[in-house]
Predict the 3D structure of the following.
Amino acid sequence: MSARAQSNEAQRLDRGRFTILAFPGDLALARSLLDDAQRNDSFPGLPRPREHVLIAIAPDSRRFREWTGAGAPDWGAAIAIPDERRIVMQGSGAGSGAGDPGAVLRHELAHLALHERLGTLPPRWFDEGYAGYSAGEWSRDEVLSANVGLVLHGIPASLDSLEDGFHGGASRASGAYALAYRAVSDMAALDSRRGLSLFFDYWKQSGSMDVAMRRAFGITQSGFEAEWRARTMRRYGALAVIANLSLLFALLGLLLVPLLWSRRQRNRRRMNVLRLAEAASERNARASALDALLAAALTAPPPAPEPSASDGSTRSDESR
């Protein structure tokens, strides 16, 4: 095999429990990611992971889509496949929207660590929220303050309803990720000393999030969701008001636009009728005036004849 062919092939780097596959253009990035992963290989509330992880760095968007499959969103920067203990992420050629590669890898590794401990127990909102919490994605709070999708859809009634947001467009998904992050962050704050560790132990033992929350935090899952929603609305109250007003105005618009259009059509038809009636009235008035003038001319007596000069002189002579 020629040296040029070898230089265009993916290369394998191993360190600890991590293996990275990267093409030559991403080798520097791969080494940096390996250093970060090896140095920071623990996650909040979880025992240190033991499973081997394969990380594949796609050299371009075409191969990223090929390796992730049809289920990955177009705007995604990486994807974790827990059952295969595999992560696929974009390389150094990705745009700025892909985010910081180190934070992206940390986010995906948190998915795998959570799955190693709890399997399929966590719902999607907790899985995504925990990954964001583990990666220290503090900017998620800024998303809640400025997310247009959140203004349109408002604060969800329950955390499970965030599922639809994860499958929406980039803006709506960003709001769902931010809300999930905020929920897990608030949950971890319920126990300032142990964080999520005791909660994870009870969840593993019972298989129930509600039971685990009762034992670890002394609150039911529904009670926590109600407090989370109220707390989020207080934090982003103006946003919630805008969302409610937007919904109200949208509903009013849907109701009023057809009514206004119908009213405008009725007014237009009425004006047409009035204009036609006015024109007909003017024509009738003109006709009546002409008829009256003509009738007056026909019925008037003929004028008396004027006396001639010779007739007057004869009568004057006879009277003498």
User: Anything to note?
Assistant: The chain is about 60% helix and 10% strand.
